[in-house]
Amino acid sequence: MPGIKTPLQDVLTKLATLQVVNGDGNTVNLYCRVWNNQIRYEEDGTLYSFPRPAAFVEIVSPAVFETLGQGYQSCDINFRIHLTHENYNNEGTFEQDLLIFDLRDSVKALLTAYRPTNCGPLNVIAEQQDYEHTNVYHYVADFVCNFTDTKGSKLDADHPEAYVESIPPTTMILQMTTDEPYLKPQ
């Protein structure tokens, strides 16, 4: 059974299905990775250049878990989606980037009500614009859902003491006789 890695991969895979137009005018799949502050590191020159538009997924910590029983735990988990793209005044007005909102709308339509493994439906709960951007725009949207974590439960197949349900043998034949005095009808 999956832990947190599987729903994270599900969100990345879902985002990567989104078709976007890159800076060269080609239709491509959205570039998606786990968030590691790539935007800042690229600006500093300490990280590789990555394709744009791009989406980076962060699991916002801390998550507060509740015990459900049998080793299962539950929490509301926040997937923060960092969207970025480059815009060179293609709308005719400097410092105004409305294309990021098209990307935001597409991501919101794609992820709203999507159910990653062991999760309830995703819902957007917060957004944040980039008010000090260059030609690279950074937009953030937070999606939340309930997550049931099975790691640590003996019902999880990966647990070292995993519960194994056995099937009793079915070839056994029970035969009763009435020759025994305690079995005879009175």
Short précis:
The chain contains 3 helices and 8 strands. With 186 residues, the protein is of the alpha+beta class.
Describe the protein's topology.
Layout: H1 5-15, E1 19-21, E2 27-29, E3 31-34, H2 38-44, E4 54-59, E5 66-69, E6 72-86, H3 99-111, E7 123-128, E8 136-149
Parallel strand pairs: 3-4
Antiparallel strand pairs: 1-2, 4-6, 5-6, 6-8, 7-8
Task: Characterize the structure shown.
This protein is α+β, with helices and mostly antiparallel strands. Helix content is about 15%, strand content about 30%. The protein contains three helices and eight strands. Strands 3, 4, 5, 6, 7 and 8 form a six-stranded mixed sheet that branches. Strand 7 and strand 8 form a beta hairpin. It starts with a helix and ends in a 37-residue tail after the last strand. The model has no long low-confidence stretch (mean pLDDT about 85).
Please state the overall shape, judged from the principal axes of the Cα atoms.
Answer: elongated
Tally of separate helices: 3
Give the structural class. Answer: alpha+beta
Helix content estimate: 10-25%
* First-residue to last-residue Cα separation: 56 Å
Q: What is the N-to-C succession of helices and strands? A: HEEEHEEEHEE
Query: Tell me about the biggest sheet?
Result: 6 strands, mixed
Low-confidence stretches: none
Radius of gyration: 27 Å
Proportion of β residues? 25-35%
Give average pLDDT, whole number: 84
Write down how many β-strands occur, each being a DSSP E stretch of 2 or more residues: 8
